[in-house]
Design goal:
The protein is mainly beta and about 130 residues long. It contains two helices and eight strands. A five-stranded antiparallel sheet has the order 6-5-4-7-8. Strands 2-1-3 form a three-stranded antiparallel sheet.
Length: about 130
């Protein structure tokens, strides 16, 4: 990855750090990430809502072929997480492929997303990890 700008990373921090979604005041649907208009009805009347931090893994994919700058992190597990009010796609962290199963409970955690080699910009955000059963 090259050319990350500090202002662009800064502007997107709230949605990456806090799992903030958009809720349409017209149709009531919630979408993540938020946008300037509702992707379902086109309304521009949106409110920000914070999504739950706990959810269930609906589906996942294990990605072995990753960009060269991420080879040390392979394989990467990408999951579709149902938070009850919305579904989000996120990296599943702190677990190997053998630890992942559909239906398992996951929780949002704050982790490094990437680092730009040219500018040195570090990007942090939310990933999900399996909840340890007691």
């Amino acid at each position: 990855m090259t050319g990350l700008s500090v202002p662009a990373v800064w502007r997107g921090r709230i949605h990456r750090y806090r799992l903030v979604a958009g809720k349409c005041n017209s149709c009531g649907r919630i979408h993540y990430p938020p946008s300037h208009s509702c992707p379902h009805c086109g309304s521009r009347g949106l409110a920000e809502v914070e999504l739950p931090r706990m959810g269930r893994l609906v589906s996942y994919s294990i990605v072995y072929s990753v960009p060269s700058e991420s080879r040390s992190k392979a394989p990467v597990i990408l999951g579709l997480v149902d938070l009850g009010v919305a579904r989000v796609i996120s990296e599943i962290t702190d677990a190997g492929p053998e630890d992942i199963s559909v239906g398992m409970q996951v929780e949002a955690v704050f982790r490094r997303i990437t680092e730009d080699g040219e500018t040195g910009v570090l990007v942090y955000g939310v990933k999900f990890r399996p909840v340890k059963e007691a």
